[in-house]
Amino acid sequence: MTDHVDALVPFSPDRPKTRLSDTLSPAERRDFADAMVTDVLAALEVAGFAPRVLTTEPTGRDVPETVDDRPLTEAVNAALDAHDPGPESPLAIVMADLALATPRALARLRGSADVVIAPGRGGGTNALLVRHPEFRVDYHGASVLDHLRAARDLGASVREVDSRRLATDIDEREDLAEVLLAGDGAARDWLVEAGFRLATGDGRVTVVREV
Ligand SMILES: Nc1nc2c(ncn2[C@@H]2O[C@H](COP(=O)(O)OP(=O)(O)OP(=O)(O)O)[C@@H](O)[C@H]2O)c(=O)[nH]1
Ligand SMILES: C[C@H](OP(=O)(O)O)C(=O)O
C-alpha cells in the first residue's frame, strides 16, 4: 500500500464559474461547481491522495477543509507555507473544475520530480505536485509558463503531464461538450439532468439545452 499524498483542492463556492453566466443561472453554477468538486474529490481518493478542500467558505462536506477567503494565489501559498513540502512530503494542488479527471490520470502526478505540472488548455495550471520547499504559485494569466519559469529559476526538476483529462478545466460553454463526451460522474449527470445534449453538425460538437 503506497502512502497517501496530501492534495489541496482550491474551491470557491460563492460565485463560481462566472464564465458560464451566459449558460447557467447563479444557482445552477453553484450546483454544477459542486458536482465537479464531488467528482474531483472522489477521483483523488481512489488515486491514493488524501484530499483537503481549500475553500473561501465552509462547504459542509465530509472531507477535511481549510477555510481561507484570501485570493487564490495567496491562499494556496499560505497552504504551501503551512505544509512545508519536501522530497518525502509532497503537496498536490488540483483544481476543483477538472470534471474529466480520473484516478488513472491523477495518479500520473505522482512522479518523482521536484515540481510536476499538468497544464490547462487555456494556459492555466490545472494540477501541480510540489516537492520543492521554495516553490510558490502565481495563478491567472498564462500561469503554466510562470510556474515553469519559477521552477527553473529555483533549479527544480520539472515534469509536465500531458493529459487531456487533466488539461480540460471546465470554464466556458464549449467545455460542457467535453463533459458530455468524456465525463462519467456527478458533473455529467448534472448536465444531463439539466437538459443538456450534444449537438452535432459541421465542425466542433457543441451543447444545446432541451427545456
Ligand atoms: N480557495 C479559492 N479557490 C478559488 C478562488 N478562485 C478560484 N478558485 C478555484 O480555483 C479553480 C480555478 O478557478 P477558475 O477556473 O477561475 O474558476 P472560477 O473562479 O470558479 O470561474 P470563473 O469565475 O469563470 O473564473 C476552481 O477550482 C475554483 O473553484 C479563490 O479565490 N479561493
Ligand atoms: C486559476 C487559473 O485558472 P484558469 O483561469 O486558467 O481556469 C490558472 O490556472 O492560472
TrEMBL record:
It catalyses: (2S)-2-phospholactate + GTP + H(+) = (2S)-lactyl-2-diphospho-5'-guanosine + diphosphate. One of its GO terms (molecular function) is phospholactate guanylyltransferase activity. Pathway: Cofactor biosynthesis; coenzyme F420 biosynthesis. The keyword Transcription regulation does not apply. Homodimer. GO terms for biological process: F420-0 metabolic process. Its EC number is 2.7.7.68. This is 2-phospho-L-lactate guanylyltransferase. Pfam families: CofC. Residues 1-23 are annotated as: Disordered. Keywords: GTP-binding, Nucleotide-binding, Nucleotidyltransferase, Transferase. The keyword Acetylation does not apply. Guanylyltransferase that catalyzes the activation of (2S)-2-phospholactate (2-PL) as (2S)-lactyl-2-diphospho-5'-guanosine, via the condensation of 2-PL with GTP. It is involved in the biosynthesis of coenzyme F420, a hydride carrier cofactor. Gene3D superfamilies: 6.10.140.50, Spore Coat Polysaccharide Biosynthesis Protein SpsA, Chain A. It comes from Halobaculum magnesiiphilum. Belongs to the CofC family. It is an enzyme of class 2 (transferase).
